[in-house]
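Progress note, sequence design subtask.
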Protein backbone atom coordinates (compact mmCIF):
# COMPACT_ATOMS: atom_id res chain seq x y z
CA UNK A 1 0.00 0.00 0.00
CA UNK A 2 1.54 3.29 -1.10
CA UNK A 3 1.89 6.19 1.33
CA UNK A 4 0.33 9.44 0.22
CA UNK A 5 2.84 12.33 0.09
CA UNK A 6 2.34 15.19 2.54
CA UNK A 7 0.75 18.31 1.11
CA UNK A 8 2.93 21.36 1.77
CA UNK A 9 1.68 24.89 2.34
CA UNK A 10 4.44 27.46 1.86
CA UNK A 11 4.46 30.46 4.20
CA UNK A 12 6.39 33.76 3.89
CA UNK A 13 6.13 36.90 6.00
CA UNK A 14 7.94 40.19 6.47
CA UNK A 15 7.22 42.98 8.95
CA UNK A 16 8.38 45.91 6.81
CA UNK A 17 8.54 45.67 3.05
CA UNK A 18 11.73 47.37 1.83
CA UNK A 19 14.64 46.83 -0.53
CA UNK A 20 16.54 44.54 1.87
CA UNK A 21 17.20 41.29 -0.02
CA UNK A 22 18.44 39.27 2.97
CA UNK A 23 14.97 38.21 4.12
CA UNK A 24 12.96 39.46 1.15
CA UNK A 25 9.71 37.63 0.30
CA UNK A 26 11.30 36.42 -2.95
CA UNK A 27 14.32 34.97 -1.10
CA UNK A 28 12.06 33.29 1.48
CA UNK A 29 9.86 31.74 -1.23
CA UNK A 30 12.91 30.43 -3.06
CA UNK A 31 14.19 28.59 0.04
CA UNK A 32 10.85 27.15 1.22
CA UNK A 33 10.13 25.95 -2.33
CA UNK A 34 13.56 24.29 -2.47
CA UNK A 35 12.86 22.52 0.85
CA UNK A 36 9.41 21.33 -0.30
CA UNK A 37 10.88 19.95 -3.54
CA UNK A 38 13.62 18.06 -1.70
CA UNK A 39 13.41 14.48 -3.12
CA UNK A 40 14.01 13.06 0.36
CA UNK A 41 10.75 14.58 1.54
CA UNK A 42 8.56 14.04 -1.49
CA UNK A 43 6.07 16.77 -0.61
CA UNK A 44 3.38 18.09 -2.94
CA UNK A 45 3.08 21.88 -2.89
CA UNK A 46 -0.59 22.88 -2.60
CA UNK A 47 -0.30 26.61 -2.01
CA UNK A 48 1.64 29.68 -0.93
CA UNK A 49 0.51 32.38 1.52
CA UNK A 50 2.35 35.69 1.83
CA UNK A 51 1.79 38.28 4.56
CA UNK A 52 3.60 41.54 3.79
CA UNK A 53 3.91 44.42 6.27
CA UNK A 54 2.57 42.13 9.01
CA UNK A 55 4.27 41.94 12.41
CA UNK A 56 4.54 38.53 14.09
CA UNK A 57 4.73 40.28 17.47
CA UNK A 58 1.38 41.99 16.94
CA UNK A 59 -0.53 39.32 15.03
CA UNK A 60 -0.68 35.61 15.83
CA UNK A 61 -0.83 33.15 12.90
CA UNK A 62 -4.62 32.93 13.35
CA UNK A 63 -4.99 36.72 12.92
CA UNK A 64 -2.92 37.25 9.76
CA UNK A 65 -4.77 38.25 6.58
CA UNK A 66 -3.42 35.52 4.29
CA UNK A 67 -2.28 32.75 6.65
CA UNK A 68 -5.11 33.01 9.19
CA UNK A 69 -7.85 31.30 7.12
CA UNK A 70 -5.70 28.13 6.85
CA UNK A 71 -6.07 27.73 10.62
CA UNK A 72 -9.69 28.87 11.00
CA UNK A 73 -11.67 27.79 7.92
CA UNK A 74 -12.40 24.03 7.72
CA UNK A 75 -12.18 23.80 3.93
CA UNK A 76 -8.72 25.40 3.93
CA UNK A 77 -7.51 23.42 6.96
CA UNK A 78 -8.24 20.24 4.98
CA UNK A 79 -6.01 21.34 2.07
CA UNK A 80 -2.58 20.92 3.71
CA UNK A 81 -0.54 18.67 6.01
CA UNK A 82 2.76 20.49 6.66
CA UNK A 83 3.50 24.22 6.90
CA UNK A 84 6.94 25.24 5.65
CA UNK A 85 8.42 28.62 6.65
CA UNK A 86 11.83 30.14 5.97
CA UNK A 87 12.80 30.61 9.62
CA UNK A 88 10.89 30.26 12.90
CA UNK A 89 10.92 34.02 13.59
CA UNK A 90 9.28 34.48 10.16
CA UNK A 91 6.42 32.40 11.55
CA UNK A 92 6.05 33.35 15.23
CA UNK A 93 7.78 35.55 17.81
CA UNK A 94 5.74 34.67 20.89
CA UNK A 95 6.14 31.71 23.24
CA UNK A 96 2.40 31.69 23.82
CA UNK A 97 1.70 31.63 20.08
CA UNK A 98 4.05 28.68 19.45
CA UNK A 99 2.61 26.77 22.43
CA UNK A 100 -0.92 27.29 21.10
CA UNK A 101 0.25 26.37 17.59
CA UNK A 102 1.93 23.10 18.66
CA UNK A 103 -1.20 22.11 20.57
CA UNK A 104 -3.39 22.96 17.57
CA UNK A 105 -1.14 20.94 15.21
CA UNK A 106 -1.33 17.86 17.44
CA UNK A 107 -5.12 18.03 17.55
CA UNK A 108 -5.45 18.53 13.79
CA UNK A 109 -2.66 16.26 12.53
CA UNK A 110 -0.51 19.05 11.09
CA UNK A 111 3.28 19.55 11.00
CA UNK A 112 5.69 22.49 11.10
CA UNK A 113 8.98 22.69 9.22
CA UNK A 114 11.69 25.35 8.96
CA UNK A 115 13.55 25.57 5.67
CA UNK A 116 16.73 26.97 7.25
CA UNK A 117 16.78 25.35 10.73
CA UNK A 118 17.22 21.57 10.65
CA UNK A 119 16.15 21.14 14.28
CA UNK A 120 12.76 22.82 13.68
CA UNK A 121 10.84 19.86 12.22
CA UNK A 122 7.82 18.24 13.85
CA UNK A 123 7.47 15.67 11.06
CA UNK A 124 10.37 13.77 12.66
CA UNK A 125 8.17 13.08 15.71
CA UNK A 126 11.20 13.82 17.92
CA UNK A 127 10.51 15.26 21.37
CA UNK A 128 13.71 17.31 21.13
CA UNK A 129 12.26 19.12 18.14
CA UNK A 130 9.67 20.77 20.38
CA UNK A 131 12.39 21.72 22.86
CA UNK A 132 14.37 23.42 20.09
CA UNK A 133 11.22 25.15 18.88
CA UNK A 134 10.52 26.55 22.36
CA UNK A 135 14.12 27.67 22.81
CA UNK A 136 14.22 29.34 19.38
CA UNK A 137 10.90 31.07 20.10
CA UNK A 138 12.15 32.36 23.46
CA UNK A 139 15.17 33.93 21.77
CA UNK A 140 12.95 35.30 18.98
CA UNK A 141 10.62 36.82 21.57
CA UNK A 142 13.55 38.37 23.46
CA UNK A 143 14.89 39.76 20.19
CA UNK A 144 11.45 41.16 19.31
CA UNK A 145 11.25 42.92 22.69
CA UNK A 146 14.76 44.34 22.25
CA UNK A 147 13.85 45.59 18.78
CA UNK A 148 10.61 47.08 20.11
CA UNK A 149 12.45 48.90 22.91
CA UNK A 150 15.02 50.22 20.43
CA UNK A 151 12.30 51.41 18.06
CA UNK A 152 10.36 52.99 20.93
CA UNK A 153 13.46 54.87 22.08
CA UNK A 154 14.24 56.02 18.53
CA UNK A 155 10.67 57.24 18.03
CA UNK A 156 10.71 59.16 21.29
CA UNK A 157 13.92 60.88 20.23
CA UNK A 158 12.31 61.65 16.86
CA UNK A 159 9.18 63.12 18.49
CA UNK A 160 11.31 65.24 20.82
CA UNK A 161 13.02 66.73 17.76
CA UNK A 162 9.87 67.15 15.66
CA UNK A 163 10.70 64.35 13.24
CA UNK A 164 8.31 62.03 11.41
CA UNK A 165 8.72 58.70 13.24
CA UNK A 166 6.80 56.44 10.88
CA UNK A 167 3.22 55.38 10.54
CA UNK A 168 0.64 56.92 8.24
CA UNK A 169 1.52 60.32 6.82
CA UNK A 170 -1.27 62.83 7.59
CA UNK A 171 -3.35 64.13 4.68
CA UNK A 172 -1.79 67.20 3.09
CA UNK A 173 1.78 66.26 4.09
CA UNK A 174 4.64 64.19 2.71
CA UNK A 175 7.78 62.88 4.37
CA UNK A 176 11.19 64.12 3.19
CA UNK A 177 14.74 63.47 4.35
CA UNK A 178 15.78 65.92 7.06
CA UNK A 179 19.18 67.55 6.38
CA UNK A 180 20.47 66.50 9.82
CA UNK A 181 18.94 63.06 10.44
CA UNK A 182 15.64 61.23 10.16
CA UNK A 183 12.57 62.37 8.27
CA UNK A 184 10.49 65.53 8.45
CA UNK A 185 7.11 66.52 7.04
CA UNK A 186 6.26 69.22 4.51
CA UNK A 187 3.08 70.36 2.77
CA UNK A 188 2.24 68.44 -0.40
CA UNK A 189 -0.02 68.96 -3.42
CA UNK A 190 -3.15 68.26 -1.34
CA UNK A 191 -2.43 71.00 1.23
CA UNK A 192 -4.44 73.62 -0.69
CA UNK A 193 -7.41 71.23 -0.93
CA UNK A 194 -7.24 70.69 2.83
CA UNK A 195 -7.34 74.44 3.44
CA UNK A 196 -10.41 74.75 1.17
CA UNK A 197 -12.12 71.95 3.12
CA UNK A 198 -11.39 73.77 6.39
CA UNK A 199 -12.91 76.99 4.98
CA UNK A 200 -16.03 75.14 3.82
CA UNK A 201 -16.59 73.50 7.19
CA UNK A 202 -16.22 76.84 8.97
CA UNK A 203 -18.71 78.35 6.51
CA UNK A 204 -21.21 75.64 7.46
CA UNK A 205 -20.92 73.12 4.63
CA UNK A 206 -21.95 69.58 5.48
CA UNK A 207 -19.08 67.16 6.08
CA UNK A 208 -21.20 64.49 4.39
CA UNK A 209 -21.45 66.61 1.25
CA UNK A 210 -17.70 67.23 1.27
CA UNK A 211 -17.05 63.47 1.61
CA UNK A 212 -19.37 62.71 -1.31
CA UNK A 213 -17.52 65.24 -3.48
CA UNK A 214 -14.11 63.86 -2.49
CA UNK A 215 -15.21 60.36 -3.49
CA UNK A 216 -16.82 61.56 -6.73
CA UNK A 217 -13.61 63.45 -7.62
CA UNK A 218 -11.60 60.31 -6.75
CA UNK A 219 -9.38 62.17 -4.29
CA UNK A 220 -7.19 59.50 -2.64
CA UNK A 221 -7.14 59.09 1.14
CA UNK A 222 -3.89 59.49 3.07
CA UNK A 223 -3.45 55.69 3.16
CA UNK A 224 -3.71 55.42 -0.62
CA UNK A 225 -1.43 58.41 -1.13
CA UNK A 226 1.19 56.67 1.04
CA UNK A 227 0.86 53.43 -0.92
CA UNK A 228 1.11 55.24 -4.25
CA UNK A 229 4.29 57.04 -3.15
CA UNK A 230 5.76 53.68 -2.14
CA UNK A 231 5.01 52.28 -5.59
CA UNK A 232 2.23 50.03 -4.33
CA UNK A 233 -1.31 49.75 -5.75
CA UNK A 234 -3.91 51.76 -3.90
CA UNK A 235 -6.39 49.98 -1.61
CA UNK A 236 -5.73 46.67 0.08
CA UNK A 237 -5.08 43.24 -1.40
CA UNK A 238 -8.12 41.91 0.47
CA UNK A 239 -10.40 44.43 -1.30
CA UNK A 240 -8.89 43.67 -4.69
CA UNK A 241 -6.88 46.90 -4.59
CA UNK A 242 -10.03 48.98 -4.61
CA UNK A 243 -9.09 52.47 -3.39
CA UNK A 244 -10.18 53.37 0.12
CA UNK A 245 -13.15 55.73 0.27
CA UNK A 246 -13.60 58.88 2.31
CA UNK A 247 -15.99 58.77 5.27
CA UNK A 248 -17.21 61.46 7.64
CA UNK A 249 -15.23 59.71 10.39
CA UNK A 250 -12.04 59.96 8.32
CA UNK A 251 -12.63 63.64 7.55
CA UNK A 252 -13.54 64.51 11.15
CA UNK A 253 -10.41 62.76 12.43
CA UNK A 254 -8.30 64.96 10.12
CA UNK A 255 -10.08 68.18 11.08
CA UNK A 256 -9.69 67.52 14.81
CA UNK A 257 -6.03 66.50 14.60
CA UNK A 258 -3.45 68.84 16.11
CA UNK A 259 -1.18 68.35 13.11
CA UNK A 260 -3.18 71.18 11.52
CA UNK A 261 -1.43 73.41 14.08
CA UNK A 262 1.87 71.67 13.36
CA UNK A 263 1.99 70.04 16.82
CA UNK A 264 3.61 66.70 17.63
CA UNK A 265 1.23 64.38 19.52
CA UNK A 266 1.67 61.02 21.21
CA UNK A 267 -1.23 58.90 22.46
CA UNK A 268 -3.57 61.87 22.06
CA UNK A 269 -1.41 64.31 24.06
CA UNK A 270 0.66 67.23 22.77
CA UNK A 271 4.40 66.59 23.10
CA UNK A 272 6.09 69.57 24.74
CA UNK A 273 9.65 70.83 24.90
CA UNK A 274 11.39 71.29 28.29
CA UNK A 275 10.11 74.89 28.35
CA UNK A 276 6.53 73.59 28.12
CA UNK A 277 5.80 74.81 24.58
CA UNK A 278 4.45 72.37 21.95
CA UNK A 279 7.04 70.74 19.69
CA UNK A 280 6.30 71.35 16.00
CA UNK A 281 6.36 68.55 13.42
CA UNK A 282 5.58 70.65 10.35
CA UNK A 283 4.59 74.11 9.19
CA UNK A 284 1.10 74.85 10.60
CA UNK A 285 -1.81 74.79 8.15
CA UNK A 286 -3.87 77.23 10.25
CA UNK A 287 -3.35 79.50 13.24
CA UNK A 288 -4.98 79.12 16.66
CA UNK A 289 -7.84 81.53 15.83
CA UNK A 290 -8.92 79.51 12.77
CA UNK A 291 -8.43 76.27 14.73
CA UNK A 292 -10.88 77.48 17.40
CA UNK A 293 -13.44 78.47 14.74
CA UNK A 294 -13.05 75.07 13.09
CA UNK A 295 -13.58 73.17 16.34
CA UNK A 296 -16.70 75.23 17.13
CA UNK A 297 -18.07 74.41 13.66
CA UNK A 298 -17.37 70.71 14.19
CA UNK A 299 -19.29 70.74 17.46
CA UNK A 300 -22.47 71.61 15.55
CA UNK A 301 -24.62 68.69 14.32
CA UNK A 302 -23.59 67.75 10.81
CA UNK A 303 -26.12 68.55 8.14
CA UNK A 304 -27.54 65.99 5.79
CA UNK A 305 -25.56 65.47 2.62
CA UNK A 306 -26.44 67.79 -0.23
CA UNK A 307 -28.90 66.09 -2.57
CA UNK A 308 -29.11 66.78 -6.27
CA UNK A 309 -32.90 67.10 -5.92
CA UNK A 310 -32.63 69.18 -2.72
CA UNK A 311 -35.63 71.26 -1.76
CA UNK A 312 -35.19 75.01 -1.55
CA UNK A 313 -37.78 75.41 1.23
CA UNK A 314 -37.26 72.32 3.39
CA UNK A 315 -37.82 73.32 7.05
CA UNK A 316 -38.44 76.88 5.89
CA UNK A 317 -42.03 76.40 4.65
CA UNK A 318 -44.78 75.28 7.04
CA UNK A 319 -48.46 74.41 6.69
CA UNK A 320 -51.18 75.91 8.87
CA UNK A 321 -51.23 72.74 11.02
CA UNK A 322 -47.65 73.50 12.09
CA UNK A 323 -46.00 70.69 10.15
CA UNK A 324 -43.32 71.31 7.52
CA UNK A 325 -43.98 71.12 3.80
CA UNK A 326 -41.96 68.59 1.79
CA UNK A 327 -41.01 68.87 -1.85
CA UNK A 328 -42.64 66.38 -4.22
CA UNK A 329 -42.09 65.67 -7.89
CA UNK A 330 -45.10 66.02 -10.16
CA UNK A 331 -46.68 62.82 -11.44
CA UNK A 332 -48.48 61.79 -14.63
CA UNK A 333 -51.69 63.54 -13.59
CA UNK A 334 -50.00 66.61 -12.16
CA UNK A 335 -46.94 67.67 -14.12
CA UNK A 336 -46.08 70.53 -11.74
CA UNK A 337 -43.80 69.90 -8.77
CA UNK A 338 -45.36 70.83 -5.46
CA UNK A 339 -44.97 71.02 -1.67
CA UNK A 340 -47.10 68.71 0.43
CA UNK A 341 -47.63 68.86 4.20
CA UNK A 342 -46.04 65.82 5.84
CA UNK A 343 -49.22 65.15 7.82
CA UNK A 344 -51.54 64.95 4.80
CA UNK A 345 -50.51 61.47 3.50
CA UNK A 346 -50.87 60.11 7.05
CA UNK A 347 -54.38 61.48 7.42
CA UNK A 348 -53.33 63.84 10.22
CA UNK A 349 -54.51 67.01 8.47
CA UNK A 350 -56.15 68.32 5.30
CA UNK A 351 -53.69 71.07 4.49
CA UNK A 352 -53.60 71.83 0.79
CA UNK A 353 -50.58 71.43 -1.45
CA UNK A 354 -48.65 74.43 -2.79
CA UNK A 355 -47.17 74.53 -6.28
CA UNK A 356 -43.39 74.95 -6.29
CA UNK A 357 -43.52 77.23 -9.35
CA UNK A 358 -45.55 79.67 -7.22
CA UNK A 359 -43.98 79.49 -3.76
CA UNK A 360 -40.28 79.29 -4.72
CA UNK A 361 -40.24 82.39 -7.01
CA UNK A 362 -42.35 84.17 -4.41
CA UNK A 363 -39.87 83.49 -1.59
CA UNK A 364 -37.01 84.51 -3.87
CA UNK A 365 -38.80 87.78 -4.61
CA UNK A 366 -39.28 88.46 -0.90
CA UNK A 367 -35.59 87.90 -0.11
CA UNK A 368 -34.27 89.93 -3.05
CA UNK A 369 -36.64 92.85 -2.52
CA UNK A 370 -35.78 92.88 1.15
CA UNK A 371 -31.98 92.66 1.12
CA UNK A 372 -30.87 91.97 -2.47
CA UNK A 373 -29.11 95.32 -2.90
CA UNK A 374 -27.35 95.21 0.49
CA UNK A 375 -23.71 94.15 0.76
CA UNK A 376 -23.39 90.66 2.19
CA UNK A 377 -21.53 90.54 5.49
CA UNK A 378 -19.83 87.61 7.19
CA UNK A 379 -19.27 87.30 10.92
CA UNK A 380 -15.71 86.62 12.00
CA UNK A 381 -14.81 85.84 15.57
CA UNK A 382 -11.43 86.75 16.99
CA UNK A 383 -11.03 84.25 19.83
CA UNK A 384 -8.67 86.63 21.60
CA UNK A 385 -6.00 85.23 23.86
CA UNK A 386 -6.81 83.03 26.80
CA UNK A 387 -4.40 80.52 28.30
CA UNK A 388 -6.71 79.31 31.07
CA UNK A 389 -6.85 75.75 29.67
CA UNK A 390 -3.05 75.49 29.29
CA UNK A 391 -2.57 76.93 32.77
CA UNK A 392 -5.02 74.45 34.31
CA UNK A 393 -3.32 71.57 32.48
CA UNK A 394 0.14 72.60 33.73
CA UNK A 395 -1.12 73.00 37.31
CA UNK A 396 -2.75 69.55 37.17
CA UNK A 397 0.52 68.02 35.93
CA UNK A 398 2.43 69.72 38.75
CA UNK A 399 -0.05 68.50 41.37
CA UNK A 400 0.18 64.95 40.08
CA UNK A 401 3.98 65.10 39.96
CA UNK A 402 4.24 66.35 43.55
CA UNK A 403 1.98 63.51 44.71
CA UNK A 404 4.72 61.04 43.69
CA UNK A 405 7.45 62.80 45.67
CA UNK A 406 6.51 61.39 49.08
CA UNK A 407 9.29 59.17 50.38
CA UNK A 408 11.50 59.72 47.31
CA UNK A 409 15.13 59.13 48.33
CA UNK A 410 17.92 61.54 47.50
CA UNK A 411 19.84 60.75 44.38
CA UNK A 412 19.40 60.81 40.61
CA UNK A 413 15.63 60.26 40.79
CA UNK A 414 15.29 63.25 43.12
CA UNK A 415 17.37 65.42 40.76
CA UNK A 416 15.13 64.49 37.80
CA UNK A 417 12.08 65.23 39.93
CA UNK A 418 13.40 68.70 40.85
CA UNK A 419 14.07 69.53 37.18
CA UNK A 420 10.56 68.47 36.20
CA UNK A 421 9.02 70.56 38.98
CA UNK A 422 11.14 73.55 37.97
CA UNK A 423 10.13 73.17 34.31
CA UNK A 424 6.41 72.98 35.17
CA UNK A 425 6.72 75.94 37.55
CA UNK A 426 8.35 78.00 34.81
CA UNK A 427 5.62 77.04 32.37
CA UNK A 428 2.92 78.07 34.87
CA UNK A 429 4.66 81.39 35.47
CA UNK A 430 4.89 82.00 31.73
CA UNK A 431 1.17 81.31 31.20
CA UNK A 432 0.25 83.56 34.15
CA UNK A 433 2.32 86.37 32.65
CA UNK A 434 0.71 86.13 29.23
CA UNK A 435 -1.96 88.76 28.49
CA UNK A 436 -5.63 87.84 28.37
CA UNK A 437 -7.74 89.33 25.60
CA UNK A 438 -11.50 88.60 25.33
CA UNK A 439 -12.93 87.24 22.10
CA UNK A 440 -14.39 89.80 19.71
CA UNK A 441 -17.01 89.36 17.00
CA UNK A 442 -16.83 91.52 13.91
CA UNK A 443 -18.61 91.62 10.57
CA UNK A 444 -16.61 91.96 7.36
CA UNK A 445 -17.77 92.65 3.83
CA UNK A 446 -17.57 89.74 1.39
CA UNK A 447 -17.41 91.94 -1.71
CA UNK A 448 -20.81 90.90 -3.08
CA UNK A 449 -24.45 91.77 -2.54
CA UNK A 450 -27.04 89.36 -1.23
CA UNK A 451 -28.55 89.23 -4.73
CA UNK A 452 -25.21 88.12 -6.20
CA UNK A 453 -24.74 85.59 -3.41
CA UNK A 454 -28.26 84.21 -3.94
CA UNK A 455 -27.71 83.88 -7.70
CA UNK A 456 -24.70 81.59 -7.32
CA UNK A 457 -26.38 79.27 -4.80
CA UNK A 458 -28.06 76.04 -5.84
CA UNK A 459 -31.32 74.83 -4.23
CA UNK A 460 -29.48 73.24 -1.32
CA UNK A 461 -27.42 76.38 -0.73
CA UNK A 462 -30.51 78.61 -0.82
CA UNK A 463 -32.24 76.32 1.64
CA UNK A 464 -29.27 76.52 3.99
CA UNK A 465 -29.22 80.33 3.65
CA UNK A 466 -32.93 80.64 4.49
CA UNK A 467 -32.71 78.31 7.48
CA UNK A 468 -29.52 79.85 8.88
CA UNK A 469 -31.03 83.31 8.49
CA UNK A 470 -34.16 82.32 10.40
CA UNK A 471 -36.49 82.97 7.44
CA UNK A 472 -39.76 81.07 7.91
CA UNK A 473 -42.97 81.06 5.88
CA UNK A 474 -46.42 79.77 6.92
CA UNK A 475 -49.02 79.05 4.24
CA UNK A 476 -52.71 79.57 5.06
CA UNK A 477 -55.86 79.50 2.97
CA UNK A 478 -58.98 81.65 3.29
CA UNK A 479 -61.77 79.88 5.19
CA UNK A 480 -64.03 80.21 2.12
CA UNK A 481 -61.51 78.53 -0.20
CA UNK A 482 -62.51 75.14 -1.60
CA UNK A 483 -60.12 72.35 -2.65
CA UNK A 484 -60.72 73.25 -6.30
CA UNK A 485 -60.26 76.97 -5.69
CA UNK A 486 -57.33 78.14 -7.83
CA UNK A 487 -56.73 81.29 -5.76
CA UNK A 488 -53.30 81.82 -4.26
CA UNK A 489 -52.77 81.22 -0.55
CA UNK A 490 -51.74 83.71 2.09
CA UNK A 491 -48.06 83.44 3.04
CA UNK A 492 -46.86 84.82 6.35
CA UNK A 493 -43.10 85.41 6.14
CA UNK A 494 -41.20 85.75 9.41
CA UNK A 495 -37.72 87.29 9.12
CA UNK A 496 -37.04 88.72 12.59
CA UNK A 497 -33.88 86.64 13.02
CA UNK A 498 -32.63 87.76 9.61
CA UNK A 499 -33.30 91.42 10.42
CA UNK A 500 -31.44 91.16 13.72
CA UNK A 501 -28.48 89.63 11.89
CA UNK A 502 -28.49 92.52 9.37
CA UNK A 503 -28.65 94.99 12.23
CA UNK A 504 -25.63 93.44 13.96
CA UNK A 505 -23.71 93.24 10.68
CA UNK A 506 -24.28 96.90 9.82
CA UNK A 507 -23.98 98.10 13.39
CA UNK A 508 -27.32 99.85 13.06
CA UNK A 509 -30.59 98.64 14.49
CA UNK A 510 -32.21 101.48 12.53
CA UNK A 511 -31.44 99.67 9.27
CA UNK A 512 -33.05 96.56 10.72
CA UNK A 513 -36.21 98.56 11.50
CA UNK A 514 -36.21 100.09 8.00
CA UNK A 515 -36.00 96.62 6.47
CA UNK A 516 -38.87 95.55 8.69
CA UNK A 517 -40.97 98.38 7.29
CA UNK A 518 -39.89 97.44 3.78
CA UNK A 519 -41.14 93.90 4.35
CA UNK A 520 -44.60 95.25 5.15
CA UNK A 521 -44.72 97.01 1.78
CA UNK A 522 -43.92 93.84 -0.19
CA UNK A 523 -47.57 92.88 -0.57
CA UNK A 524 -49.20 91.23 -3.53
CA UNK A 525 -52.88 90.34 -3.84
CA UNK A 526 -53.54 87.26 -1.68
CA UNK A 527 -49.86 86.41 -1.93
CA UNK A 528 -48.31 87.87 1.18
CA UNK A 529 -49.85 88.55 4.54
CA UNK A 530 -47.24 90.28 6.75
CA UNK A 531 -49.50 90.21 9.78
CA UNK A 532 -52.59 88.42 10.98
CA UNK A 533 -51.64 84.93 9.82
CA UNK A 534 -50.88 82.32 12.52
CA UNK A 535 -47.37 82.30 13.98
CA UNK A 536 -45.34 79.12 14.39
CA UNK A 537 -46.23 79.12 18.08
CA UNK A 538 -49.93 79.15 17.12
CA UNK A 539 -49.27 76.33 14.69
CA UNK A 540 -47.54 74.21 17.30
CA UNK A 541 -50.40 74.71 19.73
CA UNK A 542 -52.96 73.82 17.07
CA UNK A 543 -50.94 70.74 16.14
CA UNK A 544 -51.67 69.24 19.55
CA UNK A 545 -55.40 69.21 18.79
CA UNK A 546 -56.70 65.82 17.55
CA UNK A 547 -59.27 67.04 15.05
CA UNK A 548 -58.57 67.24 11.32
CA UNK A 549 -58.35 70.60 9.56
CA UNK A 550 -60.70 71.34 6.76
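Output:
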Amino acid sequence: MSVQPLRALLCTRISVLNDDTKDSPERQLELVTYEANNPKRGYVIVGHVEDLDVSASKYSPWERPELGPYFTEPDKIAQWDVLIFYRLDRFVRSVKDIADMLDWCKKNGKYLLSASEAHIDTTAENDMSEVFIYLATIFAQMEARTIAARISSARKRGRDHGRHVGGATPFGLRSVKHPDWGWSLEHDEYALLLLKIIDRVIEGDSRRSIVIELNEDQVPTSRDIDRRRQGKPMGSKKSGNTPHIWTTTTLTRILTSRYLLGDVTYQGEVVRAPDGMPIKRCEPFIDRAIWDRLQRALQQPDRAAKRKDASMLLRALYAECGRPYHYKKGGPRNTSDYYNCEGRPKGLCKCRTVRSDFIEPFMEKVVLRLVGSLPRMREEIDPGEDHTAELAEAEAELTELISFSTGMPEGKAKDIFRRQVESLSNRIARYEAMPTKPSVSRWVATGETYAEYWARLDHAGRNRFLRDSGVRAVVTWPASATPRDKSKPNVNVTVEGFLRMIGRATGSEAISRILGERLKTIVEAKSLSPAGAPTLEDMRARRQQPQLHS
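Residues 523-540, 542-550 have pLDDT under 50 and may be disordered. Work on this subtask will continue into the next period as scheduled.
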